[in-house]
Amino acid sequence: MKIKGSTNVVALIGHPVEHSFSPPMHNAAFKSLKMDYVYTAFDVNPNDLENAVAGAQALNIKGFNVTIPHKIEVMKYLNEIDEVASLIGAVNTIDFKDLKGYNTDGIGAVKAIGEVTNIKNKNVVIAGAGGASRAISFYLAKYGADKLTILNRNVDKAQKLADDVLASGLIDDVSSDDIKNMDLKDVDILINTTPVGMHPNVDDVPIASAEEMHEDLVVFDAVYNPNETGLLKEAINVGAKPVYGIKMLLYQGAESFEIWTGKKAPIDVMEEALRKTLGF
Ligand SMILES: NC(=O)c1ccc[n+]([C@@H]2O[C@H](COP(=O)([O-])OP(=O)(O)OC[C@H]3O[C@@H](n4cnc5c(N)ncnc54)[C@H](OP(=O)(O)O)[C@@H]3O)[C@@H](O)[C@H]2O)c1
């Protein structure tokens, strides 16, 4: 990649950012399409967030990805927030053309699941009620899921998310329960957004076992390290369809790429770069 006077800059902001997988994924995409763009990362202290956004505008930076801890706070400094991002209450992508914020995490998960099944009219159980669950839940509603059950250790938190999703008017059957009460009998899609099974705790008891699953189930694990989590192994054992966490990373990146550039993201190139960085 040749950096020239004309090179367009996009970047990740967060605190910290040094372990991000996004720079190799996006730079591989720009290179494959021979685009005069570079993707870098900036560690931004929370106290400097407003200056970082104003500075990026002044420097004609084209776009940001936004990660922890800035996803909520940064919305204050934007002109416009995409409708679903606004319901979610967090953004992970900024387009400086119009200083507009988007949330591509949830759409990333929905597209990952969309590789094996259609979300429309499905009965979905989602475990966890944190940031990832919130982003995914609103997109499940937007893409026509019929029924959503949010399971969490802290049931009040799950109920708050259920209330918010219901209030969006995008879906009319949303409920919450304790994660201990997992019942997958009539469920089409199970989504894990808890860190259970994440490296280094790869031997944690998964949130659901093969005995609780059935072969028509689709199981998506947002955990991407390891690639094949204990939960996905249980799914494979019972003949259910696994969807790997890496695909959510991939499709959220692809969606951001398309927002900034208006060009179709080269999915295969991005996936290859991501796998190389993650080592699988
Ligand atoms: N593939 C991707 O692109 C992608 C993107 C985003 C996140 N993720 C992954 O998704 C996971 C969650 O991220 P997040 O940002 O949503 O985190 P978060 O906001 O901290 O939420 C974590 C959720 O998991 C629950 N939880 C934590 N430890 C648990 C345990 N031992 N047993 C049962 N439930 C537990 C918490 O329940 P309580 O409320 O009861 O504490 C909470 O609902 C992480 O593993 C992250 O790496 C993946």
TrEMBL record:
InterPro entries to which the protein is assigned, alphabetical: Aminoacid_DH-like_N_sf, NAD(P)-bd_dom_sf, SDH_C, Shikimate_DH, Shikimate_DH-bd_N, Shikimate_DH_fam, Shikm_DH/Glu-tRNA_Rdtase
General function of this protein: Involved in the biosynthesis of the chorismate, which leads to the biosynthesis of aromatic amino acids. Catalyzes the reversible NADPH linked reduction of 3-dehydroshikimate (DHSA) to yield shikimate (SA).
Domain Quinate/shikimate 5-dehydrogenase/glutamyl-tRNA reductase: from-to ranges: 116-194
Record-annotated Shikimate dehydrogenase substrate binding N-terminal domain positions: 12-94
Subunit structure, as described in the record: Homodimer.
Family matches, as NCBIfam families: aroE, PRK00258.2-2, PRK00258.3-3
Gene Ontology molecular function, alphabetical: NADP binding; shikimate 3-dehydrogenase (NADP+) activity
Domain spans labelled SDH C-terminal: 245-275
Keyword Repressor applies: no
UniProt-annotated catalytic positions: 71 (proton acceptor)
Provenance organism: Methanobrevibacter millerae
Binding residue positions for NADP(+): 83, 128-132, 222, 245
Catalytic activity reported: shikimate + NADP(+) = 3-dehydroshikimate + NADPH + H(+)
Record carries keyword Isomerase: no
Protein family (similarity comment): Belongs to the shikimate dehydrogenase family.
Name of the protein in its database record: Shikimate dehydrogenase (NADP(+))
Pathway(s): Metabolic intermediate biosynthesis; chorismate biosynthesis; chorismate from D-erythrose 4-phosphate and phosphoenolpyruvate: step 4/7
Alphabetic keyword roster: Amino-acid biosynthesis, Aromatic amino acid biosynthesis, NADP, Oxidoreductase
